[in-house]
Specification:
There is one protein chain. This protein is α+β, with helices and mostly antiparallel strands and about 80 residues long. The chain has one domain. It has a 4-stranded antiparallel sheet. A hairpin with a 2-residue loop joins strand 3 and strand 4.
Length: about 80
């Protein structure tokens, strides 16, 4: 992936660098459930952005370099929450 001058990728993230799962499978599921409720968490998604292939054990150890995005559906609207 090539970064442009502003730091944004010129190309889409490689598919193996991104994992999308229900928010209930995320490391922050308890926080979402406490803040928003179980019903909202069940409608929400977690996107894990890795600094390399997510299944690579070396990347898995780079926890501080992994990004977490949450697409939270509340009252018919999608909200984006990012946790680093």
């Amino acid at each position: 992936m090539v970064l442009c001058k502003g730091g944004w990728p010129k190309e889409p993230w490689p598919q193996e660098w991104v994992v999308a799962k229900p928010a209930a499978a995320s490391p922050h599921a308890e926080f979402i459930a406490n803040a928003c409720g179980e019903e909202i968490m069940e409608k929400s998604w977690w996107v894990k952005l890795c600094p390399g292939p997510c299944q690579d054990p070396n990347v898995a150890r780079a926890v501080s370099l992994t990004g977490h995005l949450y697409l939270i559906k509340r009252k018919g609207h999608w909200l984006l929450w990012a946790a680093e």
